[in-house]
Write a structure and sequence with these properties.
The complex is a heterodimer of chains A (421) and B (114).
Chain A: H1 11-19, E1 37-43, H2 47-58, E2 65-68, E3 84-85, H3 92-112, E4 123-127, H4 130-145, E5 151-153, H5 155-161, E6 177-181, E7 185-186, H6 189-202, E8 206-208, E9 213-219, E10 222-228, E11 231-240, H7 246-252, E12 260-269, E13 279-282, E14 287-291, E15 297-303, H8 316-328, E16 337-347, E17 354-357, E18 363-367, H9 377-390, H10 404-407, H11 414-417
Parallel strand pairs in A: 1-2, 1-11, 2-8, 4-13, 11-18
Antiparallel strand pairs in A: 3-7, 4-6, 5-6, 9-10, 10-11, 12-15, 12-16, 13-14, 14-15, 17-18
Helix pairs in contact in A: 2-6, 2-9, 3-9
Chain B: E1 3-6, E2 10-13, E3 18-22, H1 36-43, E4 52-58, E5 66-72, E6 78-83, H2 91-99, H3 106-113
Antiparallel strand pairs in B: 1-2, 3-4, 4-5, 5-6
Classes of the chains: A alpha/beta (421), B alpha+beta (114).
Chain lengths: 421, 114
């Protein structure tokens, strides 16, 4: 694949381009007009959709692929999350898919020749009660049985690991302990979309932006094509990876989904010097925080309580997350907020994704990632590409069928990890 | 923050309420014979429109009564507040009620027949 890259990014290309004041960089991907027909169309140009297209081309050797995006690449939840990556899930099915993703993250920058700034700075989940600590220890053992790194830390060890954290036992929700996944961390969210887009484009994938799908055309029980704002495009296989808009596309195809679209809010502070070199999450006071490479403190919490497509949420949610952050990190109390936003996440009843064939031939859905999809981006694209190419799920994606809601084989991560993502 | 008019207490902030999601889901009785797929539609599948939506709210920190509202999920505009167990009367509410796929679901059709 590497020799096909038109313009390889390296220290040498950087040096060479600096001589011409960086005015001669080539575009990272083309802006093609849609062809009349494709073998596979992926709807949704976020991380998951672009990763799917990339793996369809690179792993499965498919040639005639398009990604349709209604806005710009990575403009939805890919650009709106808090970039946390971890694989410390309770159930075997979840461990398997999130660990698959984490392993792909570890080599992603090299594979894509694009720095996704994956930083394994550790993810520490803290507990605030005796019961939560016991539950946590059960989770740690389950996670370790699946071969995933995970360790319990005492409040003293936490204080040593994060000097600015407040481990005073007199606060309303004192820290009783925590568990750390050292291989977890963060990545640069936009770079993930751009890296996959560039690599997929290089393999001939047509990435078509500003092209909204307005209808799904079927011939009896088989997908024929899609109506878009750029006209009708026919296809043999259609993969839908549109997160918050899954139900809208589902309705176009006549499918009923267990998805509810909710706003998930996040915010960043003004940038400051480095004070936090890891990720902290708390399920009990419900807040997660890290520091970006630019120095902003990045905060997130839970979803708003009502369905919405508005890409903004209600005030009580950020108020709550700031209150929790300030109690745990009193040093943050006088920081000012710089930006605040919401994304629309596709929540599923069991807090696990749907990666599935449907009753309609050639129609595939990848949705339901809810509040925690970013961490899974490479793994999600990898197994979804496999499902589309082979028409059959592989071992990792097999439990995530839409049919699990009929059989009752749910993968209930709500109690285990459904909160802070 | 949504400002919701509770039928009993008047306008209150959203933080006093909890949201119960899609309204008008009828629980099929034990005597109704349903396939697993139809049961799944009742239990798990949800109408999730981009537009007008009939939903249940609960005044948790107030009168503790359930009621229904018609809300637009893009603009958050609330068109109607009506009591639990009744159907919406506004144009927006009636069309939101009618366009819900649940009106054609076997679980609801069979439950209503009994």
């Amino acid at each position: 694949m590497k020799d096909k890259i038109k313009q390889k990014y390296s220290i040498f290309s950087l040096a060479k381009n600096s001589l011409s004041y960086h005015l001669n960089w080539k575009k990272a991907w083309r802006t093609p007009e849609p062809k009349k027909s494709y073998d596979v169309i992926i709807i949704g140009g976020g991380g998951h959709g672009l990763a799917t297209a990339y793996y369809l081309a690179s792993v499965h050797g498919l040639k005639n692929i398009a990604v349709l995006e209604k806005n710009w690449l990575g403009g939805g939840n890919t650009g709106r999350n808090t970039t946390i990556i971890r694989s410390n899930y309770l159930w075997d099915e979840s461990a398997s898919i999130y660990e698959h993703a984490l392993k792909l993250w570890e080599t992603l920058s090299t594979e894509l020749n694009f720095n996704v700034m994956f930083s394994q700075r550790g993810v520490l989940t803290i507990s605030h009660s005796e019961h939560e600590l016991k539950e946590m220890s059960r989770r740690v053992h389950a996670i370790r049985l699946n071969g995933i790194d995970s360790e319990i830390l005492s409040p003293e060890e936490i204080k040593k690991f994060i000097p600015i954290i407040n481990t005073d036992q007199s606060i309303r929700y004192p820290i009783m302990g925590g568990f750390l996944q050292k291989r977890g961390g963060t990545a640069r969210h936009d770079a993930v979309a751009w890296g996959y887009a560039r690599a997929a484009d290089n393999l001939g994938v047509d990435i078509i932006q500003n092209c909204e799908v307005t209808g799904i055309i079927r011939d009896q029980n088989k997908v024929k094509g899609v109506d878009t704002t750029k006209g009708y495009i026919s296809t043999k296989k259609l993969g839908i990876v549109v997160a918050g808009h899954s139900s809208v596309l589902g309705e176009m195809a006549g499918l009923r989904l267990p998805i509810q679209s909710r706003p998930l809010q996040a915010l960043v502070s003004e940038p400051i010097k480095p004070i936090l070199d890891t990720v902290i999450m708390s399920n009990a006071v419900h807040m997660y925080i890290s520091q970006s490479d630019k120095g902003e403190m990045v905060l997130g919490a839970g979803v708003d309580k009502y369905n919405s497509y508005a890409q903004k949420g209600s005030f009580p949610v950020p108020q709550h997350m700031i209150a929790a952050a300030v109690e745990l990190f009193p040093v943050l109390s006088r920081l000012r907020m710089l930006r605040h936003w919401g994304g629309i996440v596709d929540t599923c009843p069991d807090a696990s994704p749907i990666i599935s064939k449907t009753d309609i031939d050639g129609l595939f859905f990848n949705c339901g990632w809810g509040t925690g999809g970013f961490k899974a981006t490479p793994g999600s694209g990898h197994v979804f590409a496999d499902l589309i190419a082979n028409d059959n799920p592989n071992k990792i994606s097999a439990p995530y069928t839409l049919d699990r809601f009929n059989t009752g084989y749910l993968i209930d991560e709500h109690g285990a990890a459904g909160v802070a993502h | 923050m949504l400002n919701i008019k509770c039928p009993n207490c008047g306008y209150r902030d959203e933080s006093e309420f909890s949201c119960g999601g899609e309204a008008h889901i009828i629980r099929p009785g034990y005597e109704v014979q349903l396939s697993d797929k139809d049961w799944a539609e009742y239990l798990f599948m949800r109408y999730n429109p981009k537009g007008n939506f009939t939903e249940r709210w609960f005044h948790a920190h107030g009168c503790r009564k359930w009621f229904n509202i018609v809300r637009n999920t893009i603009t958050n505009e609330i068109y109607e507040v009506y009591s639990a167990g009744s159907l919406p009367k506004s144009t927006e509410g009636r069309s939101a009620y009618k366009s819900n796929w649940r009106r054609h679901s076997q679980a609801e059709i069979k439950a209503l027949k009994k």
